[in-house]
Amino acid sequence: MHIKFCSSCGARVALKAPDGDTRERSVCIECGVVHYQNPKIVVGCVPERDGKILLCKRAIEPRYGFWTAPAGFMELGEDIAEGAARETLEEACAEVRIGRLFASVDVIYAGQLHLFFTARLLGDYAPGDESLEVRLFDVPEIPWDEMAFSSNSFALKKFIEDAGRDNGVHRRVISDKRSTRAAGSGLPGK
Length: 190
Ligand code: ZN
Prior knowledge:
single chain; mainly beta; Ubiquitin Ligase Nedd4, Chain: W
């Protein structure tokens, strides 16, 4: 995940801990700029109408041909709910009314945090550029074996279990591709 060149001046970067820092960072050997790398935020939603859930079949890698809830990287200048609505418009050509945040998944091996909202599907839908197909699924039809990402599967399961109730934000931590665990309280000493 480390960069090789400085995006400010183009010189090489070296891995070292800047003064007063305990972690190694990519530091430019010429201009000294520290290139901090932090997790990226992925925002998405589970669009629902009449008990059916809208999913998209991916037309892009990774996981080409697998199903996903509309989700993608947050852009600068938007909040997480706006990002989830924008991704739904891009991937499913669908307008949604974003509801509440209900799932948060730390995907540590990928350096990402995935956040999911409930959403109400408002109008028509169609495949966007990044989707092969978009369709509404009854819950028993959901293709669990063909879901693109385990964060998505986790969010979908919790959405179905909640059945419209507000059970707070469900958390999950995925440390590597094979290991997943329930999230702790996040409090020191717990
Ligand atoms: Zn530089």
